[in-house]
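Handoff note, outgoing to incoming analyst
You'll be picking up this chain. Sequence as last confirmed:
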Amino acid sequence: MGVTGPTGPVMDRDEVDRALARLGAEHEAIETSLLALQDHAGRRLLEGADLTGVTKERWAATEAAITLLWTYFDAYAGALRTAREIRARRRWSSREDLAELTELLSGESVTVPGSATAAAGAPTPDGGPGRLTERYSLTTLVDRMNDLYARSLDMVVAADAVWSALPARIDLLAAELQRTRQLAHSVGVRPGEHPAGDDLERITRTLTRLREQVVSDPLAFWKPTEGSSAPGGGRPDTTVYDREARALEDVRREIDAVLEVRKDAEARIVKLRDLLSRADRTLAEARTARGEVLAKIAATEVPVVSGPPTVLQEQLATAAEYRRSAQWHRLSPLLEALERKAEDELLRARESLTAVTAPLAVRAELRGRLDAYKAKVARHGLAEDPELVEKYERARRMLWSAPCDLRVAEQAVLRYQHAAAELLGGAARVPGQSGPEDRGGPGA
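Most recent structure output, in case you need it:
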């Protein structure tokens, strides 16, 4: 049975040497980590920054934690140094030395002022109220240092990541915003006069406020990764930045459209004049045709042809004035609306002409049908038939006289077709019946 001490079995020389080697390696690793944290760019920025909000609160706690870390580390280093000195007294440590080393290396032999623990808000070993001094084992002290280091590094890395990402991107976007503002001003897009100008003002205010918030409270713009325990696990929250970047891109596209208007405004205005001129000429032709129809066609409804809308001409004159005065931001939407209206107006004029001339087209169709049947009858040697001649002449007089009653003329043409069909023995198709003429037409 081995020798026992206050904390249990006393370690032998080999166990002591192995423990000292392990604790020495941990001491070097912890010291390296603490020095890296001390030199971390994010920590230096946090020390000199005028912080607000959640970052201010967390940095106050983190500063206290870093101070406690060094306090723990100094106590740990002191205990390790004492253990090494005891071990170095003799090549072959005595039983008393081994007992003292066992207590120092595995017992709660490290004393830390309770004020340091309380200042950092760290829990006490037994979870009770703080005392004047706290005692820890070296193993417990390492665990506490690892926990404090991870939490401190997490805060420092998160703040540094936000500062490294967002302010530079905001500055780049602000520079692009300034260029866009100058371009917008050159084409007359100004606040209070154009929605895009108002958008630029709002984006400017938002970016200015965003940069101030990011610089003073970076942790407000940090999204931790769910389930990640690694220090600095997460990413900067760029939601506001991304929204304003999209808004600026929308404004830029609108300004590009205005610039495009400036480039081809003259050609578009000339095209608009041509469209409206063609619509006017078509309406004039429709009015002329209506008079002709009323004179030549009787007993039919002929639609009234309205005149050209003067409002389009007025808007076209306004567009020309906008172009002369370089009011491109006003010219752009006006031209787009005018182009749609001019196309609609030309279509309306053509529809009016078609509607007005429809009776003349019907008369022309009846004339063509009558002549086609006369030619067919002539090919069969029946052109001199008295009944056919009489019916043909009657239909012809109706179709070639003015005013022409289309309903009566159509009945006369149908009577001629019936008579021709009877003489030809059904070779010609009577409307409503099926026969060979359906396949060959009246001229077959």
